[in-house]
Amino acid sequence: MVLLTVSGSLDSLRPPACKERPCVEANGGQNAFLLCALGLIALGTGGIKPCVSSFGADQYDEADEKEAIQKYVFFNWFFFAINMGAIFGITVLVYIQEQKGWSVGFGIPTAFTICSIIIVAAGFPYYRYQKPIGSPLTRFVQVIVSSVRNHLEGVEVEHEDDLYEVTTKESDIFGAPVITDPETVRKDRWRLCTLTQVEELKSFIRILPIWASTLDLAISFAQLSTFFLSQAAVMDRNLGSNFTIPTGCVPIFSAINALILVPIYEKVIVPILRKLTGQTRGLTSLQRMGVGLFVSILALALSALVERMRRQDHPKPFSMSVFWLFPQFFLMDSAEVFTYVGQLEFFYNEATDGTRSISTAIFLSEIGLGSCLSNALVKIIERATGGQEEGWLRNDLNMSKLDYFYWILAGINGLNFFVYFWVAWRYKGRRFTILSGHCSIREKIFHGMRISLENFKDSKSI
Asked: Transmembrane residues, as ranges (predicted)?
């Protein structure tokens, strides 16, 4: 952010203001400086996003029933806070950038970022920390390499009694099963891994189908910042006689909806659903994601109908009010509220202690992959229908058939919904059955107790 602020402040790092056409293009050095700044932002964001939600949830003790419930509430309010920041960014900052320039527009979020770092650092003595146990990717590769080596060498465990619960530093997770024969315990994990590492990898692989079956929704979310804004640009954005809503501020519909829907869901909908379903949170994480996927289908279908009406009934540009887009923004953001928070809950809860950050990271990777897949789909449709000049998605939106594109997305989401339903129905969560009920992997510390890994079909009692 500092580099972006500098780039927007120094004349030598930006092209001159465009007063006459054609505009002066930025030179190689200016582009390189800008790309370097954007690259650092991407790198920093990639480090923050997967960790901040997991770290926040780690502040709640799962062994405490009250705090365990508060953890789920945290995910809702975490999403609420994100949208509060979004409203500030797409209203106040957009206005400041237009009125005061890029230097001030970038300088303000830079100052806020510095303040946030100071606030977070002030809480270091009071946070709850999980003990670092190394990179999960390294442990995954160790399992694969050691399993291939052992398979090729014909290594087998002769007795199941060699595996039991221990609470030593040998285990990657407190209470993990390991081989205890001193002749077989090695420091080289590339040849022999703990059973916990194996189950950790299996648990991670098990959530990948859920991740893949929700990836299509990210393509739909990409339309919020692309074609939804293109529609707004050719509609009447006047608010009274003296104010025109900037196109970049139109996504405020989505952010405001989130600020309204999250408290309503938490305070009104959850208590009602709790009585109907018997679930503490009203809906399970998988059910919540399913609701979001279904609502996204409705959002895209409505988007197609609104676009068809805009193009046919209002052929003159800027004759249809931008507020006609509010329902599709409302439905799409409602889908995001259900799905995004449901994914946060699911990928956090179904991951082991050592894989929660990477589980959250693959969920957030949907945002980037969704944008790439959306762009690829647009290119395919452009080529298949005649290009940007004659196809469905022309440069002139009034001559395009954007509603056809929305119908295709709605159809894809509809098919994906059934795929997700099948995957979610077959999914078995990360739970362990004991004599008195259920416990999480963190609670599996009772040496000698009969515990069944029921989420694996080939599991055995240990």
From this structure: 73-96, 102-127, 243-265, 285-306, 318-341, 404-425
